[in-house]
Design goal:
Layout (H helix, E strand, L loop, with lengths): L7 E10 L4 H11 L4 E10 L4 E10 L1 H13 L3 E6 H4 L2 E12 L2 H13 L3 E6 L2 E8 L1 H12 L3 E6 L3 E4 L6
Antiparallel strand pairs: 1-3, 1-4, 2-3, 5-7, 5-8, 5-9, 6-7
Amino acid sequence: MSATDTTSSHTISVLVDNEPGILARVVGLFSGRGYNIESLTVAQTDPRQNLSRITIVTNGTPMIIEQIKAQLDRLVPVHTVRDLTVEGPHIERELALVKVKGIGEKRVEALRLADVFRAKVIDAKTESFVFEVTGNSDKVDTFVGLMEGLGLVDVGRTGIVAMSRGGEAL
């Protein structure tokens, strides 16, 4: 397998007009060509200009990633397409709500681990907690994995939100 055949994960940030149907068009582009979306988030970023940022994490060879970016760039109303993975330093964060059921030592251990991971208790009952944990995906994965042995009940994750470092805008 050559270096051009190696697949890798890429975080792509797309600035679009905030209008009905744009998310369906972006997702349709991926599904129509058999590309996988590992994570997808979208939110309005500039209400004055009516702009939203779509953050997509996908996997592919360098050639496939270039095709994805080119096809996204041709969609109207896309303003910019940036591959944050290749552009340099960027920040990625994800939020998860993690419900854990436990009493006694398991309850104490869950609270201790939450403190280590800087997870917040956002709901507490006598036999359960809901924690909010924020960080990179590896941190969230690790926290969820540790909670599995302590009474993990449910997990809800936001997906990755990303932004380049430095002073320039998207």
